[in-house]
Amino acid sequence: MPKTPRPAFRCSECGWETTKWVGRCGECQAWGSVAEAAVAPAGRTSASPVTSPAVPIAQVSVEESAFRTSGVPELDRVLGGGLVPGAAILLAGEPGVGKSTLLLEVAAQTARYQRRTLYVTGEESASQVRLRADRTGGVHDELYLAAETDLGAVLTHIEEVRPTLLVVDSIQTIGASGIDGVPGGVTQVKEVAAALIRVAKTRNITTVIVGHVTKDGSIAGPRVLEHLVDVVLHFEGDRNSRFRMVRAMKNRFGPVDEVGCFDLAADGITAVTDPTGLFVENHHTLVPGTCVAVTMEGRRPMLAEVQALVTHSAAERPRRTTSGLDSARVAMVTAVLGQHCGVHLFSKDVFASTVGGARVLEPASDLAIAVALTSAHQGVPAPRGVVAMGEIGLAGELRRVRDLPQRLAEAARLGFQLAVVPTEPGRTGPRSPESWTVDGLRVLDVADVRGALRLLNLLADGSGPRAVADDERPGYPY
After folding, report:
1. Domain-embedded: residue 476
2. Are 258 and 298 in contact (CB under 8 A)?
3. Is residue 53 assigned to a domain?
4. Mean pLDDT of 451-467
5. Annotated binding site: which residue ranges?
6. How wide is the angle at C-alpha 362 spanned by C-alphas 356 and 368, nearest 5°?
7. Can you give the pTM of this predicted structure?
């Protein structure tokens, strides 16, 4: 006798399954999202005809999968060179961040290269998308537009238009007839994504799918959606700023964690090839509590200014407020300064932030945070034109950072004249710092954070070597 399929329970948010009902999903931790779902009986699978015979890998042609430019250089940088025919790309981001504007620009640029493009919108009407295209200059004869919410109608449009680039905005609004659930549900998203990816692979159509995000920033829908696609991109940005960043979280054709920078304006979205100036403030006078760090966003070095404010606290528990920085690392740096450098901030309110809405979460920015906090506490500005980079350990030592030559080259290109970096293996300690020059940038390496603060004249004890003498401070030669 065949076994009767046991009832299973499935989460409507992420697709997690369990044999008994629970009030909270064990995968996404959502409450009240687990409901009963029937389990299909298991069957046997027999051999079936193959679509194409297996051949040696050396005989497989790669010409059909060569990169094609999207017309947007920053997006090509993130993708590893451009759009790959047959690739499935998932672009996710918060509402209003500019996903539709970016993809409409990509579709228009692709159409200008005489490659037919199909833009399917399920969230807006065709006339609304046309208005945006008029505003951004994206009207072209090779750009086709369709407003559909049914999967069958979308597949029909693909058969008729035969595009080289397909944009679906968004997958949560497309529904498949004959499948249980509402559009945007786990079952519907899996079926729609599988159908679109299957068409993309068989017809060599580059497919870009827009995905929604949940309130915690993760991609909505089942996790299997991220496994099915070839590339996963996150579109990030602050609502109070025009600056936007596209970050690659998964890429089968190029590097991951690569970042593209864009400027979102009323007339469209444009690429920002040199975003460093957005995150560094040009102070006309020297200000205590500031320091410039060099971070790596993918393979791109970017300079970001760290600012700190230290004031007396009137509360029993002093405040620790951060913006754009990791609050845990700021707390650790504060503790290290008090224990190893005599900079006691336990009774002070500490505020630390970055300029321009930049997110500096890399441990290499620890030294810049320490310099900014000490400068704000002492009321003494750091020398002009100084960059600091290095990870701080709990013992107060400075640890090496990756891609140091690229960071120094970027700082030298932007006109900085002094860099404080961790000591390389085999070099001497802070009382006899090693110094060398990179394209006019003087580089000093130190072994610990106390030595770095002494070099910059930020400690009041007056001991140890210094990078700037007291009589040279008014001129700030750096």
Report:
1. no
2. yes
3. no
4. 71
5. 93-100
6. 70
7. 0.76
Q: Judge if 349 and 423 occupy the same domain.
A: yes
pLDDT at 466: 46
Instruction: Provide the annotated binding site for ATP.
Output: 93-100
AA letter at 157:
H
- Rounded distance, CA 342 to CA 449, Å? 12
List Cβ<8 Å contacts ≥24 apart for 310-315: 310/345, 310/348, 310/349, 310/350, 310/351, 310/373, 310/376, 310/377, 311/348, 311/349, 311/351, 312/347, 312/348, 312/349, 313/347, 313/348, 313/349, 315/349
Asked if pLDDT for residue 157 goes beyond 70, the answer is: yes
The two three-digit tokens of residue 344, written as one number: 């006691």
Residue 361 has pLDDT above 60, yes or no: yes
Task: List, in order, residues 6 or more apart from 216 with CB less than 8 Å away.
Answer: none
Residues 352 and 446 in one domain: yes
Range of the domain at 253: 65-273
Asked if residue 9 has pLDDT above 60, the reply is: yes
Residues 176 and 27 in one domain: no
Helices 327-340 and 366-378, interaxial angle, to 10°?
Answer: 60
* DSSP notation for 369-403: HHHHHHHHHHT-PPPTTEEE--EEPTTSBEEP-TT
